[in-house]
Amino acid sequence: MATKHEQILQHISTLGVGEKISVRSIAKAMNVSEGTAYRAIKDAETQGLVSTIERVGTIRIEKKQKDNIEKLTYAEVVNIVDGHVLGGRNGLHKTLNRFVIGAMKLEAMMRYVEQSSLLIVGNRYQVHKLGLEAGAAVLITGGFDTNDDVIQLADELELPVITTSYDTFTVASMINRAIYDQLIKKEIVLVDDILIPLQDTYFLTTDNSVEKWHELNQRTGHSRYPVINEDMKVQGMVAAKDVLGAAPHTAIEKVMTSQPITVSERTSVASVAHLMVWEGIELFPVVDQARKLLGVISRQDVLKALQMVQKQPHVGETIDDAITSRFMEVSSNSDYDFQVDVSPQMTNQLGMISYGVLSTLVTETASRMLRKYKRGDLVVENISLYFIKPVQIESMIDIKAKVLEVGRKHGKIDIELYHEGEIVGKALLMAQLLDR
């Protein structure tokens, strides 16, 4: 039987998109305490079922699909620009496809305004009205208001009219940044993208015996299975080594590994790879917040996903991309292996290279050196980093690396960083290696 928490989430998911939700109304409808209702609503917000907006409240929104993750809802825009909704609240759940800055003549501007767009403009009442009639929401900058006719039209068309105290340029930059962040998130592969779903997952229950493991093993060829109870919650994992020598009638509960490490569907595949290497685990159960089984993810799935990510073109540039794009391999007759010039983005507030950037340079150097000996990816196990002398903006850093040890699963690299012939940094990196 579903818990009260799960029943509330189910109830919220059945509500109409755009409907307002409050702790009191949920508590009354589901006959639960306000504390239980509050926790469930917060969980629903995490799952993308609802959105809370200042001076508006919590509303049911449309859960965005993965292929639409780079698009924002108008409710999210309100949060991004610290805005206030003047009208059209029922349309806050809708998604915007583009935004148009209304800084040109009316006729020219309206050529770019279309349905599902966001018109960013100042105190031009006529433009507000024409934008709504064209099917666009309106974002008014500079803290300006609009007239009652526009607000009434916004309510009728269910298209939000939002006001913010920021200027047009700042607002456009903020929205651009939000979309850009979403694009970067889209590139990061999550467990949810590659897990084997529940309907295709083989598992055992706590009332099964070792005999059932042998049946599944003969039928599927697999040797590891999650063990669940009657509520579908993961209780353990059982593998071939656990049943070795056990009598067929032995209860699975007696031989399984209790309280196994699990991952959620929102965990990144890179994090799972790290766990698999460190813990020596071949298969993880994927669970929800109540530890109910959603599926499984195997080492083979993780390795395939990591290989695929490396073949994909990057849409949004991360900080690591910005650093490594300036990374150059030098000619073979040089004393150094790599060079990098220190750009403004790589410095701290004092104009010196930041510690985080230095760590990235060391990791990138180690990765490139190890690839010469062994194809694959590395997971950093330990870095001993000595920042001997600060390096300022627009300096050229020369990097010398020496492979001290490389085995089937481990590597050790000594790295020295130089500026104008003087040593400025030194590091010793140890890493675990992932085969491709």
Question: How would you characterize this protein structure?
Answer:
The protein has 436 residues and is an alpha+beta fold. It has four domains: 4-60, Orthogonal Bundle (Arc Repressor Mutant, subunit A); 66-187, HprK N-terminal domain-like (Udp-n-acetylmuramoylalanyl-d-glutamate--2,6- Diaminopimelate Ligase, Chain: A, domain 1, 3-Layer(aba) Sandwich), CATH 3.40.1390; 192-308, CBS-domain, CATH 3.10.580; 319-434, Hotdog Thioesterase (Thiol Ester Dehydrase, Chain A). The protein contains 16 helices and 24 strands. It has helices at 4-14, 23-30, 34-46, 74-80, 106-110, 125-133, 148-157, 168-187, 191-194, 210-220, 240-243, 252-255, 269-279, 299-311, 319-324, 355-371; strands spanning 20-21, 50-53, 57-60, 72-73, 84-87, 95-96, 98-101, 117-121, 137-140, 161-163, 196-197, 204-205, 225-228, 234-238, 257-258, 263-264, 283-287, 293-298, 327-329, 338-341, 377-387, 396-406, 410-419, 422-434. The chain has a six-stranded antiparallel β-sheet. The longest helix has 20 residues, at 168-187. It is flat. The protein starts with a helix and ends with a strand.
